TrEMBL record:
It comes from the Bacteria. It comes from Massilia phyllostachyos. The lineage of its organism: Bacteria, Pseudomonadati, Pseudomonadota, Betaproteobacteria, Burkholderiales. Gene3D superfamilies: Alpha-glycerophosphate oxidase, cap domain, D-Amino Acid Oxidase, subunit A, domain 2, FAD/NAD(P)-binding domain. This is Glycerol-3-phosphate dehydrogenase/oxidase. Residues 7-353 form the FAD dependent oxidoreductase domain.
Amino acid sequence: MTDGDWDLLVIGGGITGAGVLLEASRRGLKALLVEQRDFAWGTSSRSSKLVHGGLRYLAEGRLRLTRESVREREALLRDAPGLVEPQGFAFADYGASRRKRRSFLAGLAIYDFLAGRRERHWVDAGGFAMLAPNIEQAGLQGGIRYMDAKTDDARLVLRVLDEAREHGAQARNYVAVDSLLRSDGRVIGARLRDARTGSIHEVRAPLVVNATGAWAGALAGQGSAPRLRPLRGSHLVLPAWRLPLAQAVSLMHPEDGRPVFAFPWEGATLVGTTDVDHADDLAGEARVTRAEFDYLLNALRAQFPQLHLEDADVLATYAGVRPVLDSGSHGAPSKETREHLVWDEPGLVGVTGGKLTTFRAIALDVLAHVARQMPAWRPDLSPQPVFAPGFLPRGPRGVPAALLLRLAGRHGRHAQDLVDGAQEGELEFVPGTLTPWAELRWAARAEDVHRLEDLLLRRTRLGILLRAGGAEHLERIRAICQPELGWSDAHWEAEQAAYLALWRSHYGLP
Ligand SMILES: Cc1cc2nc3c(=O)[nH]c(=O)nc-3n(C[C@H](O)[C@H](O)[C@H](O)COP(=O)(O)OP(=O)(O)OC[C@H]3O[C@@H](n4cnc5c(N)ncnc54)[C@H](O)[C@@H]3O)c2cc1C
């Protein structure tokens, strides 16, 4: 890795770093990415998993950001079927003023105009109950239905990294940058530490991109990173049978009027999110607090009173930290801008903030800054298809077409090998999820899994979809994955104990 004659070193294996790696390597740069933990370990596996145009930005009058987000959402829907999917949203109306209703519909009209199709509809109370069964009926006037999209955020990062590798890039997990190397005031590379062996290496590159998200200011030797205000957002996951939804439901929280949503995701129901200052040490993982847990559950109890939802209905929780620029206003977290920021110093381009949805646009913005420091490189920075066109894998008779599409979306050029490698019964789903057992085998075989948590929290999402992190299935998971990983019994058992302890402390009920 360090012997390579790199044009570009990207630090951070979240969606931003992955996007920069892909867009740079498809334009001819020889690029290396390093991630201190696992790919997507940071915010990019802990988002709300929506690929959205950002209605909120529209309400704030930020048309440019909405236009860009809608364009990127449409590109992802077109180029990543099976990974990014349309998601209908339903917003119940309990007698809002006519003015409010009209302004919401006007906002949606702009949203539709930007996407080039009409998706918004007013639905009367009877129709709305079909879209969102169990919703509070008292005072329900009807509601508004509109479209956005959803994804599996960690798989999106992995797919982007894989596409970058196809263009000759390299990406390594569990390799941290300890500090930047400088010469005559210019960044000329970085000091890397292998997080598993502790060995130290130096790598040189004419240009370094700092894409470390919420950690942007923590990198030693990093001079000019902006001041960030880390804001935590937490989520709950419930079994679909306890909170069955035909659509995403978005609602205003009865306590403070903030938007909260619940939507069907991977066979379960995902609920989010909060927006609070995150004062914990960024070296550890974020976790939901009791107050956030109650806040989200209270929103569900108010919107779905007859379901009598309780703590024990929650399968898992997770929290992420938004890398939000600090305006210094100390105002409400939701008032801080969600736009990304790019900064330069000689030999380095830094980037932080933004959204999962707009990763391609952010990457192109970063590369415009990179190009200014590399006069010999004159790239065409117009957007290209997110992924090269893919093919549906062929499966044995009886395998549902939706499963093949899912595998094509998540695994791209490897989907056929994944299907071919599946053993008897492994194209069936892990109960209660949409994950076939074969995805576990493939991840263990070919996807840089070094820890059991990589396999269960990011290559697959079983850790946040199953009660107790999937403890009841660990025996079968072990039978499939231990031989693929080449781990001894002692190694597996130590990993299993570490995973279950992590799950209890950070993904269970607070
Ligand atoms: C609660 C929440 C909900 C969200 N929901 C949505 C949504 O629905 N839709 C949407 O579009 N966006 C959403 N976002 C925003 C989106 O998730 C983030 O903007 C995006 O994931 C940030 O990606 P990133 O790559 O910049 O950061 P990260 O994903 O955090 O990646 C940075 C990486 O850098 C690594 N790193 C740090 N220091 C070093 C070092 N020294 N050496 C090597 N590696 C290092 C970290 O380990 C980390 O993996 C949400 C964010 C949050 C917090």
